[in-house]
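Re: that chain you flagged

S.,

Sorry for the slow reply, it's been a week of failed gels. I finally had a moment to sit down with the sequence you sent. For the record, here it is as I used it:
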Amino acid sequence: MTREKALEVPSYLDFLCQQFGGEGCELLFAEYALKREYGEESTLFRYEMNKASSDFSHEYVWPAGGLSDIANAVERSAKRFGVKMYAKEKVKTLNRKDNMFVVHTDNFTVSTKKLVIAVPSFAFKEITGDVAAEIKSNPCLKEFFLTLPLKLQRFYSYPWWENVTSSHYNLTLKPFEIFRSAATCLVGTMPYSGRATPR
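Prediction finished late last night. Pasting the structure tokens below so you have them in one place:
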């Protein structure tokens, strides 16, 4: 995608919806309770956020096998639906041939019409090929390849974010609403030792 073409897309969310298609776009909206139309009133957005946070149990439970249990559960679920998965394979090249994607790894060469590759942005830099080059050169996605992402996990002894008294915070918002990120980073709710299960 050229820079000029990228500027035709009103927002990052619109771009994602174009790339993900209808089902992916609906998943994005459902996952983050996002507004579907720019013309909607902000009260509807507030309703969606309240609905999303009302379903949030505030019970923090760690999987017995750690966070990798979540990835393993996703893998099992995908396989149940007939998805072919090549886990722990290092992708070397990612190309497009006609209307197919061709992926070369150390051990396989795979052709498919639909493709999902889960890889950190830092590791993605090493992948070559015309599709990889197109993704890397996309102005909307360039910022994701600039720095090494950092995963940080911290437990607090008490929920300090529920007692914020600074005047620049809107105290009518629930904690889930306050700390929901509108930036390009991913922010999760912050468990504290009183709510998390002991490890």
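What I noticed first: The first strand starts at residue 91 and ends at 97.

Talk soon,
D.
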